[in-house]
Write a structure and sequence with these properties.
Acetylcholine Binding Protein, Chain: A; 3-stranded antiparallel β-sheet; single chain
């Protein structure tokens, strides 16, 4: 039994004639549409018609008499037109017109030319740029991907003035231009680009062009060159001059004690084997492929890790050779190096990060980067919040000592908040065996929060002699059991307890520490149950001691650590 066709099978059946599908040439058409990312099928149909007309016209011109002057004129005009449109490579004969097809027109589409000029990586991305209005051909903005670029207009395909992509391209080109990377270089057969300065003449001879002369020169220089042999110095050892231009610095990772930077490493040396003598040529600038065939310094970074050299779109290397054999090489590098840091004064420290260069057969070079850390971030994220949390813990000194839940909850909340801030800040630091300046501040803040809770414990135990509602104390049963043990030698205080309660806070605090439950019982008996508990002297004293001592700590802390930063 034959099953029923599915939806996609029915849809396919409507579009394709399976009986004559080979004659319809449908597969080739789909392949061309996909290869050149042609979104409209009508464009491909137009290209087929145009290519058919061109072939028919060429066929009619061929049928004319060879001696007919009109044939020569028509042939010249047709080939000139096809060459200017970019459909043929040369103007040798009408046989080239027979090879014009739909693909010839597709190769002249604007997205294809953009990919060819390295303005986009894929045809899909190029089509998106065009439809968004980022591309102009000459003075006109083009938004149609089907626009055909003639041979004369190839050099005028660029970004629009208001395009955001153009700004990124200009920023990148400015970076390259500072190191004299000449991106627009002449193409040669063996090497990608070369640039001759100063170009005083386009030809050295009647037959050979400048390009051919330079190609022959390079082939002759490298014919007997051995890149495994180090060049000899003029007056002794080979001198390699090295300098570095740092483009950007960062990020600096304290947890791994590393830093990264982007720089141009420039080196120059002299190689007698690369001397040349060409008229009107003083130096030749070559591509990075030339480095594979000559000797170059094997420089590496002793403290480097995971360093890379950008290779987009080509390896960022610049090579220049002078006629006296002097070689100049510049490479763009992204360096990730180790930086041993002493975090005792963190975040008021000033780390010094080294960069050590060396070679297998060369002496080393040391570069030191003196860094300065801005503490504005830490002031807003750590110091100010912790200071306010400590000040918040002092609010309990103004809360009635009978409100035990409020004072205990406030103290516990401030401790947990300070500890949370400390854990967040320690997240990006290595596990060092010593305390940093930030650790000292956080630990002191936790100590003050903890002291506020201990202070209330002393107030609650030593000076709170009545319960919240008045009347007898909750510890009365316990003290009565202790009073029964007088015969066993328990310490007995004088009966003048009312006089002692009027003594100073510190004296009362000391007597409470040395006393026992009988002393507390005598204090409860002498209390005024009608008026309840008065304000504790310990609370009154703490209102002055805690803020004053914390201010003194802050003054000493910043005076001690900032002196290192200022020095």
């Amino acid at each position: 039994m034959v099953r029923r066709l599915r939806f996609h099978e029915k849809k396919l059946l409507k579009k394709v004639d399976f009986i004559s599908w080979e004659v319809d040439n449908n597969l080739h058409e789909v392949k061309i549409l996909k290869k050149y990312y042609i979104q409209k099928r009508e464009d491909y149909t137009k290209y087929n018609k145009l290519s058919r007309h061109v072939r028919e016209l060429a066929r009619k011109v061929k049928e004319l008499d060879v001696k007919d002057p009109f044939r020569a004129e028509a042939t010249s005009q047709l080939l000139e037109k096809l060459y200017n449109m970019g459909l043929v490579e040369t103007k040798r004969g009408l046989e080239l017109a027979d090879n014009v097809n739909a693909s010839s027109f597709c190769r002249r589409r604007l997205p294809v030319m953009m990919v060819k000029n390295h303005m986009a990586q894929t045809l899909k991305a190029a089509t998106t740029f065009i439809e968004q209005g980022h591309i102009r051909v000459g003075p006109e903005v083009v938004k149609d991907p089907a626009f055909l670029v003639t041979r004369n207009m190839e050099d005028f395909v660029t970004w629009t003035d208001t395009s955001a992509i153009k700004k990124h391209v200009l920023d990148y080109n400015e970076m390259i231009r500072t190191d004299r990377f000449h991106l627009h270089l002449f193409a040669i057969e063996k090497y990608l680009w070369f640039y001759i300065c100063p170009p005083r003449s386009n030809r050295f001879s009647d037959d050979l062009t400048l390009r051919e002369n330079v190609t022959i020169l390079l082939d002759n220089l490298l014919q007997t060159y051995d890149k495994s042999v180090r060049p000899a110095g003029r007056d002794g050892p080979l001198v390699i001059k090295t300098n570095m231009l740092v483009r950007s610095m960062g990020p600096i990772t304290e947890s791994e004690m590393t830093y990264s930077l982007q720089c141009y490493l420039r080196q120059s040396w002299h190689d007698e084997r690369l001397k040349f003598d060409l008229p009107n040529v003083t130096e030749v600038t070559l591509s990075n492929t030339f480095l594979k065939d000559i000797w170059k310094p094997n420089t590496y970074f002793l403290n480097g890790r995971l360093s890379t050299q950008p290779n987009i779109t080509v390896p960022n290397v610049f090579v220049r050779i002078r006629k006296d054999g002097s070689i100049y090489m510049s490479r763009r590098l992204t360096i990730n190096a180790k930086c041993p840091m002493n975090l005792l004064d963190y975040p008021m420290d000033a780390p010094v990060c080294p960069l050590l260069l060396a070679g297998w057969t060369q002496s080393g070079l040391e570069v030191y980067f003196h860094l300065k850390r801005h503490i504005g971030f830490f002031m807003l994220q750590t110091y100010l919040p912790c200071t306010l949390i400590v000040c918040l813990s002092w609010v309990s000194f103004w809360i009635n000592r009978d409100a035990a839940p409020a004072r205990v909850l406030l103290g516990v909340t401030t401790i947990l908040s300070t500890a949370a801030v400390g854990l967040i800040q320690r997240d990006g630091l290595p596990r060092v065996p010593y305390a940093t300046a930030l650790d000292v501040f956080l630990n002191v803040c936790i100590f003050y929060n903890l002291a506020a809770i201990i202070q209330y414990s002393a107030v609650n135990y030593f000076t709170k002699i009545l319960p919240k509602e008045g009347g007898a104390s909750d510890d009365e049963d316990e003290t009565e059991n202790v009073l029964n043990e007088d015969q066993n030698g328990v310490l007995d205080w004088n009966s003048t307890i009312g006089k002692e309660t009027q003594t100073g806070c510190m004296i009362l605090f000391c007597r409470c520490l040395l006393g026992n439950f009988r002393f507390r019982y005598n204090m409860v008996k002498s209390a005024d149950a009608a008026n309840g508990n008065s304000v504790s002297s310990i609370d009154i004293l703490s209102r002055y001691i805690f803020p004053l001592s914390f201010c003194l700590f802050q003054a000493f802390y910043w005076a001690w650590y900032l002196r290192f930063k200022l020095s």
